[in-house]
Amino acid sequence: MRRRFRIAHLVVVSVVLAGIVAQPFLIGLFLFGAVHNADLHTIVGYTLFEFGAPLLLIAALLARLPRREMLLTLLLIVDIFVQIVLVNLRDSAPVLAALHPLNAFALLLVAVMLVRADRALLREGDAEPVPAPASEM
Question: CB neighbours of 27 closer than 8 A, spacing ≥ 6?
Fold first, then answer.
């Protein structure tokens, strides 16, 4: 059962990673005039926070991830929250808000590290030998 939750965690992390990768394209659509507002970028960002972060935590807890992967998951969740905070500082602290695009690189890095760690963890689980049934005497 734990393996299934680890697969679920990998799927959720992969979807979050895809959202993070899509974000520069979505804001580029607005910046270069393909769309008239940044709503797509905003909606995906808040969706990653409102749905991605809780699903990451739930999947990580159910998968009983090792400490390193659990810490990476928590780091990703906190960094998604920081990303939202940074963009909301645009009126009161624009210099801090300017860290929003830079923090996107940190999000990308942590998400990629977590996907790689999850894949390695699943591969290790596949390599574990299955205990032989006890022979009857």
Answer: 38, 41
- Long-range contacts, 39-44 (Cβ 8 Å, 24+): 44/19
pTM of the model: 0.86
pLDDT for residue 125 is more than 80: no
- What pLDDT, in 10s, does the model give residues 25-35? 999 999 999 99
In Å, what is the CA distance from 121 to each residue of 6, 23, 64? Answer: 8, 28, 12
Report the amino acid identity of residue 60. A
Phi, psi of 32 (to 5 degrees): -105, 15
* Alpha-carbon span 128 to 32, nearest angstrom: 51
Give the side-chain half-sphere CA count within 13 A for 35.
Answer: 11
pLDDT of residue 61: 95
Q: Name which of 126, 82, 135, 106 is nearest 20 in CA terms.
A: 106
Q: Which of helix, strand or coil describes residue 88?
A: helix
Q: pLDDT, tens digit, for every residue of 41-76?
A: 999 999 999 999 999 999 999 999 999 999 999 999
